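anyone seen this seq b4? input:
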Amino acid sequence: MSEYWIGIDTGGTFTDLVLGDTGGGRWHYHKVPTLTADPAQGILNGIAEIMSLAAVDPAQVGFLVLGTTLATNAVLEGQWARTGLITTQGFGDVLSLARQRRPHYFNLDVPKPTPPVPDDCRAEVAERIAAGGEVVTPLRDEEVLRAIDELRGRGVQTVAICFLHAYQNAAHEARARQLVAQHWPDAYVSVSSEVLPEFREYERFITTVVNASLMPVMDDYLQRFEMGVRDLGVRSAPHVMQSNGGAVTTQTVRQRPINTFFSGPAGGVVSTAALGEACGVRNLITFDMGGTSTDVCLIRDGRPAMKSERDMGGFPVRTRTLDIHTIGAGGGSLAWLDAGGLLKVGPKSASAYPGPASYGRGGTRPTVTDANVLLGRLSPVALLGGRMSMHPELAAQAIRDEVATAMGRGAEEVAIGILEIANANMTGAVRVISVEQGEDPRDYALVAFGGAGPLHAADVAAMAGMRHVIVPPRPGLMSAQGLLQSDRQGDFSLTRLVPATPDRLPSLNAGLRELARRADDWLASEGVGHDMSGVARLWQLDLRYLGQNAELILDIAAGELDEAALARAVDAYHARHADLYGYDMRAQGVEVVNLRVSVVIARERLQVAAIARHDARTDPVAGAPTRRVWFAATGFVDTPVLQRDDLLAGACLDGPAIVEQMDTTTVIPPGSSTRVGADGSLHIDLTPGAPGKEAH
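predicted toks r here
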């Protein structure tokens, strides 16, 4: 009997669902509007609908994984739980002092973000550990008990425990946690030596505090979600996607909600890497454009770029994530005029409700979607396979009334401007993760997905100097499908701030053994027994030149170093520094900052069936209806409108063309050529005059 897997990606506008059959390779796809007032219920409705559409018994669902934006939205909107802090005496203001960073050099009045812990919920206790880990002032139990009483009296629901230099010696934090558990069992607790055992006090404090503030929020959400899944008859315990590209149990997420900030977009990156492996393209840039935002990520030699710190709501939260760069540009991004009368697009969005004016749900402000409808790039009749009616007259009215009249321009002219501005913004995002990281985007293929990605991909690629665009078979559901292709992954780190010299090998190897212990504990919590055949470990060092304040992360071969391995790591550091910055300093000493290990539990891959072959004697464009579509190179031209399901493997066509399907629309510009791959992917070559061929 077949087993079915379900992936759910909750976006700002739509919730995408994919159901895969482990036995027969069948796939089912579904989209429902996101219920912003109650996301969990919207997800449950979608699960019930896709199981009904696929005629699947809920008891046959063996794996269910969720990509969620809940933690991200909670931080951005300040919707966290009332949080308290227990810290070393004299360090309660670390959260307020933050860093002396100025996001705008010439603005002296930029306020710092308000941390989750109010001033009156920061309890200081007399204790002190030195930078080397020695106890200077012992922790007394009565000090912690006093702090507990103080915070409980102020209505605190969740507690962060952050002591000075706890990354070197966690004994005081461990004892404080034990006392909180004994005397305040209802409180949620987040401990810095477990969440982020790394140096840099502010980053460690704010990461732990943000994690604590999200624990009750995520726990409540997951509890309702799990109960709803059980009520639907699904017996398999659900999993949640993390920002690092790995799916884990809900219990792990309850302890580390900060690991889900890029939960949904991570699915798209995982799916893109799998797509690249299948079609032999190793260098890729993901282009995930949805209704609210656009996410881009660079995949070099099949491996997605990673980061260890992300700015979230103004807070430098340190957690291992895919290096996904996000901007506020999506199909629902609003067009508006600034005080000087200049046209702007985004970052504010029309969201799912009321949505773009052309949706006919009451929206009156123009969006990128409305511009695409007015310019013929999106169907003026219906979307979602006919399930959503479109209203082009409302799109024209919104653009005219809100911006065009004030500018003294026509609605179509302004719609062109909206598209050009949105494309320029998204091209800038592509350059951030490529050019600014020392990578040439011309060496990469752009993989377009999300509900709006294929609409804009060819224009963005051309502006970035890229020649090849790949549009997967189900681009609007790519992130949800990627959730089902994810392994389980845990990331662990700790600080060892020592010179990279042979005499420090005992300290470094002791740290690596500690990481191995933590990794083994995590594997046990994920239900992995003695069989480690599917488990892989990636060991890394953070290195920097003595005197520097930033590190580079280098791979090492194993979880134990000898003199030769350390020397190889140092040589690799010099080479990487030269690649990124154009120089190295081999006479300068190198310092180890952090040790890292990533543990990956491989999961079975669902197969994607090949599609039927195209008959070379037929023209895929012959007999196709046409409509008036605007292109940057030609203006308005009558353009054939094709259905994606009619394009079979091996078919070739020249632009211009519009390709429609349930979950997205692909714009193929004039002067380009397109070939359909064996899996149904569209390989668009933007090189003028080139024959249709796959990107390499």
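The longest strand covers residues 488-499. The CA atoms of residues 619 and 653 lie 8 Å apart. kinda curious what u guys think
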